Amino acid sequence: MTRVKRGTAANKRRKNVLAAAKGYRWGRSRQYAAAKQAVMKAGSYAYRDRRNKKRTFRSLWIVRLGNALRAFDVSYSRFIGLLKERNVELDRKVLSDLAVRDQDAFKALVEKVKSL
């Protein structure tokens, strides 16, 4: 039997972990054990926060809509209720974008929904 040296897989694994930990502070970027823990923790935070980002943005859109609707004397909940009643299928993201970027179109939409 020929001799097999088995270091390459372990070296590659360690190199990949240290590469993923690049930019971390102190020993977490240089020491394998610390880097491995930091990379695992960072991965779990990233996984969690990809889901949390969706709810964060939804709440941002709702706050923006509420502030924009205040000028028209309509509450957010009343406005959303009117949209559902009138079968207007615009989501909060689009409505928020309208309120921020195109106030004239948003005003026309609010007036139309209120008047019907």
In short:
The protein has 116 residues and is mostly helical. It has helices spanning 7-20, 32-70, 76-85, 92-101, 103-115.
Structural features, described:
The structure is a single chain. This protein is mostly helical and 116 residues long. Helices cover 74% and strands 0% of the residues. The chain has a single domain (7-115), classed as c-terminal domain of poly(a) binding protein, CATH 1.10.1900. The chain is built from five helices and no strands.
Helix/strand layout:
Blueprint: H1 7-20, H2 32-70, H3 76-85, H4 92-101, H5 103-115
Secondary-structure class: mainly alpha
CATH-defined topology: c-terminal domain of poly(a) binding protein
Domain tally: 1
Helix content: over 70%
- The CATH homologous superfamily is called Ribosomal protein L20, C-terminal domain
Strand content: under 5%
Shape: rod-shaped
Q: How many strand units? A: 0
CATH architecture field: Orthogonal Bundle
How many helix segments?
Answer: 5
CA-based gyration radius: 26 Å
Q: Which CATH class?
A: Mainly Alpha
Distance between the termini: 87 Å
Largest sheet: none
Features of the shown structure:
116 residues; mainly alpha; c-terminal domain of poly(a) binding protein; 74% helix
